[in-house]
Design goal:
2 domains; 7 strands
């Protein structure tokens, strides 16, 4: 067998080994992020901070979907989750919650476009973080880390 044919045969036989090795390495390393948060931004017109929550409904989903996390300095205890596609607040994270009891998931009928339209008693007692939106594998949303620590910018109006 010529050297060229031998090298070609070895290359063809090695491809499945390389692919299997790469896939297991990706899984072990958590290749890519299933979910993550952007940094905080300030929206001066409404005097709140927001960040984007990016997620994949399933591990091999191409690209990301997103919702917003909104922190109102006037309501310092909570980070509210807002779905920009349905234009509804759908829950909140309690920054003072206990382990395993941080998130209040609103019932569909209590979700509103404006936070002021949601009565306080519509928010249930905090529980575990809900699963990633549209996910079917039960993976929970990661808790957001902290809120902006700086004071509100001066109101120049």
């Amino acid at each position: 067998m010529s050297t060229l044919r031998l090298l070609s045969l070895m290359a063809v036989l090695a491809v499945p080994v390389i692919m299997t090795s790469t896939e297991s390495t990706e899984a072990e390393a958590g290749y890519g992020y299933r979910q993550y948060y952007s940094s905080w931004n300030y929206y001066p017109s409404y005097r709140y901070y927001y960040r984007t929550y990016y997620y994949k409904p399933y591990r091999r989903y191409s690209g990301y979907r997103y919702h917003y996390c909104i922190h109102y300095p006037s309501r310092p205890r909570y980070v509210y989750y807002y779905n920009p596609h349905s234009r509804r607040y759908w829950g909140r994270f309690d920054l003072q919650g206990k382990d395993g009891a941080h998130y209040s998931l609103l019932k569909k009928e209590d979700q509103r476009e404006n936070l002021a339209d949601i009565p306080e008693d519509a928010f249930p007692a905090p529980a575990a973080m809900p699963q990633i939106p549209e996910a079917e594998d039960g993976v929970q949303i990661e808790m957001p880390e902290g809120v902006p620590e700086q004071d509100l910018p001066a109101d120049n109006s």
